[in-house]
Amino acid sequence: MKEEKIKGSFKGLVPFFIFIGIYLGSGLILQSQGVELAFYQLPAPIAAFAGIVTAFILFKGTINEKFSTFVKGCGHQDIIIMCIIYLLAGAFAGVSKAMGGVDSTVNLGLTYIPAQYIAAGLFIIAGFISTATGTSVGAIVAIAPIAVGLAEKGGLSLPLVLSAVMGGAMFGDNLSIISDTTIAATRTQGVEMKDKFRVNILITAPAAILTIILLVVFGRPEILPEVQNYDFNLIKILPYVFVLAFSLIGMNVFVVLTGGIALSGIIGAVYGDFTLLTFSKEVYNGFVGMNEIFLLSFLTGGLAAMVTKAGGIQWLLEKIQKSIKGPKTAQLGIGALVGLTDMAVANNTVAIIINGSIAKKLCRKYDVDPRKSAAILDIFSCIAQGFIPYGAQMLILVGFAGGKVTPLEVMPLLWYQQLLIASVIISIHIPFADGLMRKKPWVWEAEVEGI
């Protein structure tokens, strides 16, 4: 069936501007007034709801038609999957912490990792977990509480440590073959995951290596803590090892997180940390702790669908296409499109899905290898998602800091994202990452005719 042609309209973006303006504006105003926890005074889902109400008022169509579009967006497979991951990740973090897993892991790290290497180590560990599980959110949930504890006990800068966790999580999410972003990028461009990975790794590796070096150089605490042995229990660290190990062998992320919850529960019961009833309460508390992120993702999914149907995303596409002159600007255009879309929808997978078809058309028109465009889609979406202050990753990350850090304090220290955008732009103008792609003619499908 031929897709309905959507006419671009700037008015289609207004609800997103309302949402983002209310959320960021209230936080900035309250912070300037010295209000404690300024960015948490107005719940993000309320700002999103204001954008949704605006969409219902501005957009054409009956109430039932608009509501149908909204519900389809809320029920998009990627939104539902992400929301379930939030719940399971929250439960895993809560149960593991309640039975002493976080404290044991923190103390193990303090005992054996020199303080000057903790920040770099957290980047690498977060990268491994995110690559293994295919989700940056899961990696942040597993590592952020540990990072906060290490920063506080080891005398490290909390914003710097959190930025290291964010960088590692987005590095792994971008490369993981089981990540939703990788699946979306390769499917929309019609390429093999291994081919996209070959291009992707050559672009991300320089940024990751430089980030690790910077974290080693600047991640030293001002005052080195005294060398001492902290109490830890290796058995209580097993749930984290379990999640990492079984993710590395390709087990489904839902099975991995559910298994991690069960293992933490068993260990907690054996050591008398909680009973079956208190275990159940900890699981539920973990669910509740993710309510705001759950609701925000759910509502923005519906809002994104309404904005797309109203032509807001198409308007962005049309504006950017006017500046495209050849293969290099086409690649930059693809990156700008997915990055701007991610800033609007705050979901990197959805941003890729929205822009996948137009990226494929641009590849055909300007002779861009689709394996390169798949990598660019994934990279730019992960850069944007790992940088925006209202994204799920950032909100969860700073949430573990208990109000001691705001997104604006973490953002300037996101060195990996900053270096990655430089690396990908250089790779577009000097195609150093294209060498591993075997040259072959592409057979384009009929549905991508024209732009």
Automatic annotation (TrEMBL):
UniProt cross-references to InterPro entries, sorted A to Z: Na/H_Antiport_NhaC-like_C (IPR018461), NhaC_Na-H+_Antiporter (IPR052180)
Annotated keywords: Antiport, Cell membrane, Membrane, Transmembrane, Transmembrane helix, Transport
Membrane topology (UniProt): Multi-pass membrane protein
Transmembrane segments: 12-31, 37-59, 79-98, 118-151, 197-219, 239-272, 293-317, 329-354, 375-401, 413-432
Domain Na+/H+ antiporter NhaC-like C-terminal, first and last residues per copy: 30-219, 235-423
Pfam families: Na_H_antiporter
Compartment list: Cell membrane
UniProt KW Membrane keyword: yes
Superkingdom of the source species: Bacteria
Family: Belongs to the NhaC Na(+)/H(+) (TC 2.A.35) antiporter family.
Name by which UniProt lists this protein: Na+/H+ antiporter NhaC family protein
Organism: Psychrilyobacter piezotolerans
Higher taxonomy: Bacteria, Fusobacteriati, Fusobacteriota, Fusobacteriia, Fusobacteriales
